[in-house]
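Notes from the 1:1 (GR / supervisor)

We went over the backlog. Supervisor wanted to see one worked example end to end before approving the batch request, so GR pasted a single chain during the call. The sequence is below; no edits were made to it. Supervisor asked that the structure be written out right there so they could see what the output format looks like.
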Amino acid sequence: MNILDKFFPVGNFSLGIGLKPGLVLLFLHWFGRPLFGLLIRFEPYLHRLYLKLGRNR
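Structure output shown during the call:
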């Protein structure tokens, strides 16, 4: 990950690979997939909500 950060700066590795960036990646890996599945299931409703809020980009 440290070598990858040298070529493609991710943003979480400003101080190198440490405990905090490692935990952030682990958290995103564990909880990202269920969150993505949930957001995909409700995407039409969220799209309508975004349009009503005026965030139609």
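Supervisor's comment: The CA atoms of residues 12 and 25 lie 9 Å apart.
Batch request approved.
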